[in-house]
Design a protein that fits this description.
Layout lengths: L1 H52 L22 H7 L6 H33 L5 H10 L5 H14 L7 H4 L7 H11 L4 H9 L4 H12 L1 H17 L2 H6 L8 H5 L10 H21 L1 H10 L6
């Protein structure tokens, strides 16, 4: 009798375990089903872009839509990139974009590292107020400053050049400074004090200590900078008047004619322009996620 009474709680525990296991399995099925469905929704535009890049132009406008190209027209890619002599998509637009990328990348990383180090480590009166003012600029839409900046650059004769697109990056960027400052504050001050006791100045501390330990957040800012500059459309469109100075983002607009749109060539050019960003993300995915997760651990 005692043995029978002892087995009742055991049976209940087994039943509870099976019910809980069934509930966890059901929840996982629902979650993964939703994730797969959302993934398909987000991947559909990319799928349509690739398939349209391999179709004849008339096939992109058919209704009901033709989902797969038949036959695949691979010559759309060389025609889009090299076929039009009046549209120097490659290599002219590519070289212009890379030239701007290099100068913007150098300017933003150097300026933001120095400013973020000042906010994270140096003691000065009003530092917190200035940091609050810096963060408040994030709430200012770029469209609000577009016309004043154009008037300023036009007055000093910088229009139709790469200067308005590159020089502002040497004066810092609020989001990058914020991310770097948060990461710098996670670095123990004892390491910096030890270097200063050995006679290191501020420049050596930044180059030999702060920068090597902050590679995740620096890589994160570099990825964001590359993406923003690569996709920038309004900047080159506003400041550049000569077609030989246009970037890839502006060059894509050339495929939209006044009376005709070669949708298959436009999609082919879009696929090529998107590939560097996709490859960059997958190559630097681990550092990208690590930079985001570690940048907000400390604050003061």
């Amino acid at each position: 009798m005692a043995q029978a009474t002892r087995s009742i709680p055991q049976v209940r525990r087994v039943e509870f375990y099976h019910k809980r296991q069934f509930g966890d399995t059901l929840r996982n099925v629902v979650v993964y089903t939703c994730l797969i469905a959302l993934s398909l929704v987000f991947l559909f535009p990319f799928f349509w872009m690739i398939t349209s890049a391999l179709k004849e132009n008339y096939q992109t406008m058919l209704w009901p839509p033709q989902w797969l190209p038949n036959p695949a027209r691979w010559q759309n890619f060389p025609e889009a990139l090299f076929g039009n002599s009046q549209l120097p998509f490659f290599p002219t637009f590519l070289m212009n974009t890379m030239r701007i990328e290099v100068f913007v990348m150098i300017g933003r990383l150097v300026s933001c590292v120095l400013v973020a180090y000042g906010f994270a480590r140096l003691e000065a009166r009003g530092k917190d107020f200035l940091f609050a003012v810096l963060l408040s600029t994030l709430m200012l839409p770029s469209m609000v400053t577009m016309i004043p900046k154009f008037i300023l650059f036009n007055m000093i004769g910088w229009t139709n050049s790469f200067l308005p697109l590159t020089v502002p990056s040497y004066f810092g960027e609020a989001f990058a400074i914020f991310m770097m400052r948060q990461f710098f504050m996670t670095i123990p001050r004892e390491l910096e004090e030890a270097m200063r006791m050995d006679g290191a100045n501020t420049t050596r501390v930044i180059l030999n200590l702060i920068v090597p330990l902050s590679l995740p957040v620096i890589t994160l800012i570099a990825i964001f900078t590359f993406k923003d500059t690569w996709n920038d459309f309004f900047g080159p469109l506003i400041y550049l008047n000569d077609a030989s100075k246009y970037t890839l983002a502006v060059g894509l607009a050339f495929f939209n004619g006044q009376f005709r749109v070669d949708m298959n060539l436009l999609m082919a050019a879009n696929v090529v322009v998107m590939m560097p960003l996709i490859i960059l993300f997958f190559v630097a995915q681990r550092v990208f996620v690590e930079g985001i997760s570690l940048s907000g651990l400390a604050g003061r």
